[in-house]
Amino acid sequence: MAGLFAGIGGIETGLRRAAGDQMETVMLCESWTPAQQVLEAHFPDVELQPDVASLSCLPERLDLVAAGFPCTDLSQAGRTAGIRGAQSGLVAHLFDVLRLADQRGDRLPWLLIENVPNMLTLDRGEAMAYLVKELGHLGYRWAYRVVDSRFTGVPQRRRRVLLLASRTEDPRAVLFADDTPGLDESSLRDDAFGFYWTEGRGGLGWARDATPTFKGGSTVGIPSPPAVWLPSSEPGRKIVVPCVEDGEALQGFDRGWTAAADLGRRNGPRWKLVGNAVTVGVAQWVGERILTPGVFDGESIPWIRKGGWPTAAWGDGDAVWKVELTEFPRLEPYTHLLELLDVDNARPLSHRAANGFWSRLQEGNLGRHSGFRADIAEHVEVASTATLPPPPGRE
């Protein structure tokens, strides 16, 4: 396989876990230096190209190309400039190198694309329309599905679109063969709640027994991790921020995965690297199904574009069919948030951050879960009268 827009190798790591020696990564392409440092640490013998815009060709005889292209212009947390934006528009180079591979007679069996669900609705779904149009020109049948990373057992509510395409294989047998009724919310615990402390007016990203989606940026302009409310903890420790190693684990990586990019400061690049990554278990599921396809026998409903796209669909030529599926193809054993979170190494949310969040929270009607607002107010008071000692180690 080759990985374009490789980030820190989430897709490649997941496929490697699924396929073992059957999957060899022969080329990676990534432009950001900190991400390159991580890739060099974990894929030391793999060719690393520095820029997809200058990539002249793909390696020969590939079985799969993965492209988790930038969501910067597509996500609600980003600029929402759309598929023509400076960053998300880089996906055009993917189709350029695929056409070049065609010209030399090297036809690719599988193409895997990953991005945010907002691409289905932004600009009336223009991003997805562009992708499937390009795939149609190349003769691919395609299928896509929105999935929630919690199906892999990690306590992070992270919704992503997986788009799989092939000329010779049926992508529906990979993406649609598995489905469950979804996560049983009654099985979740009430001892930890994740939320965005950078919000307060328009949203909280509220997540019971989980964190909301990790993001590469935030409304305060920095790649900030969510906070976690621990109702039963002592005052001053009820509102904490996970350490970056927790973030790595919540994305399915080994702890310390991004250490090669550590600059030794709190606002270094590691959280942005983690926030932009693909959850490893999601890619692992795709890899397992590519190796052992299932059977899709569900109903397909002809669909004509009138705006945003459905959460699951497939297409062949100019025709598109909608499919009714949940965002939980499987239900791996769930890791409760406090089973994963290193509470002792999680720093309390600072007074400045907590006070700003509390001010925004009081301007709206959000955060009404029993006890939450009282604990935020308490945390602001405690943090204002005492220096909350950081936990051992650094973020």
Automatic annotation (TrEMBL):
Q: What is its EC number?
A: 2.1.1.37
Q: Name one GO molecular function term.
A: DNA (cytosine-5-)-methyltransferase activity
Q: What does the record give as the active site? A: C71
Q: Which domain of life is it from?
A: Bacteria
- The EC category is transferase
Q: Quote the InterPro entries the UniProt record gives.
A: C5-Methyltransferase, C5_DNA_meth_AS, C5_MeTfrase, C5_meth_CS, SAM-dependent_MTases_sf
Swiss-Prot/TrEMBL GO biological process terms: methylation
What keywords is this UniProt entry annotated with? Methyltransferase, Restriction system, S-adenosyl-L-methionine, Transferase
Question: Would I find Signal among this entry's keywords?
Answer: no
The similarity annotation says:
Belongs to the class I-like SAM-binding methyltransferase superfamily. C5-methyltransferase family.
Which PANTHER family does the record match to this protein?
CYTOSINE-SPECIFIC METHYLTRANSFERASE, DNA (CYTOSINE-5)-METHYLTRANSFERASE CMT3
What is the protein name stated in its UniProt record? DNA (cytosine-5-)-methyltransferase
Organism of origin: Dactylosporangium fulvum
